[in-house]
C-alpha cells in the first residue's frame, strides 16, 4: 500500500483557520499542476463508554476510543484506543454490533471532506475538518501519498524532500500558519515498516485529538 503522511494546519498564535486559507492551499496544489481526481470523505468518531448508573464497570472499559472510516477502505472500520496504543481493523458491520450492544456512545464525529489531486508519483488530498452535520470549519488536513513504495523507511527521504518543497510553496502565500506533520511511533501500536491502512488510521487519530477538544468551545468571529 502507498505511503501516506497526514498533516494538519497549525495557525499562528492569535489566529484561527478559515475558508480563505483552505482556498489558498488548494490554489497552491493547482499551481504545481495538481490534477483533480475527485472528492473524498473520511469520518472520525469519538466514543465514550455508556456506563449508565453502574460506575463499578468503569475500570473494565477503555476511557475512550476513536473510530475511523477511510474512503480507500469502505468495507473496513478502524478502532484506535489511544491510551493503550491499540489499533484494530474490523469489518464495517461492527458498527451494527456496536449499536446493538450500546456499550459505547458516540460523543462527537468529525468529517474530513476534500479534493484529491494527482501530481506525478504523489497524490495530495486537501480538505476541511467539520463536525458531523455542520459546516463550522475546525481544521484543515492534507494527505500526501507516495505511490510507488510501501516501506516507510525507504520513502522517508523522498517524502521529507517533497514536504520541504511543499512548505516553501505555501510559505509564499504569507498565510498565518503552516502545515505540521507529527509522525506517530508506529511500533507502539505493533505496526511494522510496511505501510497499511492501520498506519493511516493512527495518523488521523494523532492529528484530530486536539480538534476534538475544541469542538464544543466557542469559535472566534472570522472576517
Strand count, sense and barrel status of the largest sheet are:
9 strands, antiparallel
What fraction, in percent, of the residue positions are helical?
A: 25-40%
What's the gyration radius in Å?
18 Å
Give me the secondary-structure category: alpha+beta
Total of domains: 1
CATH class: Mainly Beta
How are strands sequenced across the largest beta sheet?
Answer: 5-4-3-2-6-7-8-1-9
The separation of the N and C termini measures 42 Å
Low-confidence stretches: 218-223
| Beta-strand segment tally | 9
Describe the global form: globular
Per CATH, which architecture? Beta Barrel
Q: How large is the share of residues in beta strands?
A: 35-45%
Given the structure, what is the number of helices? Answer: 4
CATH fold description: Hypothetical Protein Pfu-838710-001
SSE succession: EHEEEEHEEEHEH
Average pLDDT level: 88
Provide a quick synopsis of the model.
This protein has 223 residues and is α+β, with helices and mostly antiparallel strands. The chain contains four helices and nine strands. Helices cover 26% and strands 35% of the residues.
